[in-house]
Amino acid sequence: MTLTSIEYQSIKEKGICGRYLTHDQIEDFLSAPKNLEVRPVGKSVLGVPIDQMKLGEGPVKILMWSQMHGNESTTTKAVLDLINYLNADLPTSRTILKQCTIMMIPILNPDGAMAYTRANANGIDLNRDAQERSQPESRVLREVFDEFQPDYCFNLHDQRTIFNVGNTPKPATVSFLAPAHDEARSVSVSRGVAMKLVVAMNEQLQNRIPGQVGRYDDAYNANCVGDAFQMTDTPTVLFEAGHYPEDYEREKTRKFIFQALLKGLTIIAENDFNELNVSDYFLIPENQKRYFDILVHNAHVLDSSLIEGDAVGILYKETLVDGAIEFIPKIEKSGNLKGYFGHRTYNALADEDFKIIEGNPTWIDLFR
């Protein structure tokens, strides 16, 4: 059997899907009978409960939190899938639950989740509030951290569709980071452990999405939660769920995050770090920002203000409309876009491509 020893579809939490995910939508999951201890640990700015989930009985403690940014829901879905797997009574799940105690905050920013915004209800980015802790959600996370005293932290996020892997045209479907703990970005013992975890998860995913795993920028910022926790000598890993071709709902990326989480927990539970090398972490290509959702070559055919050979890069603005996310195209950049890629690419000089563009009222309005 493979690592999961089970078909993913059998443990996927099918009642939760899409990009818009709020506290109300996971209440049924949290209240269903499971080997799971659930309790509120605080409230958001608007008074919405912030819940924590705890499972396992082992000595190694792992803290993970998702939707610190309210519009980043893919990792929350993967966490629910992970809970289903851990309750599936399989050899790997039994090992993890015996060796580890796992604390999860599925939605740290429920107000941002409801409004589908990055910031909380006060307009504050919680991932820049690690030191001041001016917001109730920031204080909740730090209080859980201080009380639980984890041995490992998993910081779970989504990233935009703009990222590619290194200099390749591969989209960064999943990205990782072992955050820096000082300005020099030195490799402490704890950061080295985090790097080894990333190496293991990268190896796991390369079998599934070869070339589509990137390394996130490790610029040091003490106000970022991952950096702040790494500063306490707690191995901390940042997960970034990104774009897979034609997967704007991020249901495929969700599966890859689940597989990465499971691999990370398995390495920790089995204390299987000996064959992992910190140097391999630096072989993972860094992310670049070279993608548009739509790239139109020879766009002078559509826009007379452009010169021959110019291209137009379009990004979708994710907009909450009547309880669902709509992907509204906006021109991001135009001109000489050599070296950029498009998740969809068209050539306005090609008859078939021109018909697609001309026949799409949403796109063509951008050029008027």
Describe the structure.
The protein is of the alpha/beta class and 368 residues long. It folds into 2 domains: 8-288, Zn peptidases (Aminopeptidase, 3-Layer(aba) Sandwich), CATH 3.40.630; 290-367, no CATH class. Helix content is 31%, strand content 24%. It has helices spanning 8-11, 23-31, 74-86, 91-99, 110-115, 136-148, 189-206, 225-230, 251-270, 278-281, 351-358, 361-364; strands spanning 37-43, 49-56, 60-65, 100-105, 152-158, 163-165, 174-177, 213-215, 236-241, 287-289, 291-297, 311-321, 324-335, 341-347. The strands form 3 sheets. An 8-stranded mixed sheet has the order 1-2-4-3-5-9-7-8. Strands 13-12-11-14 form a 4-stranded mixed sheet. Strands 6-10 form a two-stranded antiparallel ribbon. Helix 4 crosses helix 9 (251-270) and helix 7 crosses helix 9 (251-270). It is globular. The protein starts with 7 loop residues before the first helix and ends with a helix. 46% of the residues are buried. The model has no long low-confidence stretch (mean pLDDT 96). InterPro entries: Peptidase_M14. Belongs to the peptidase M14 family. Residues 7-268 form the Peptidase M14 domain.
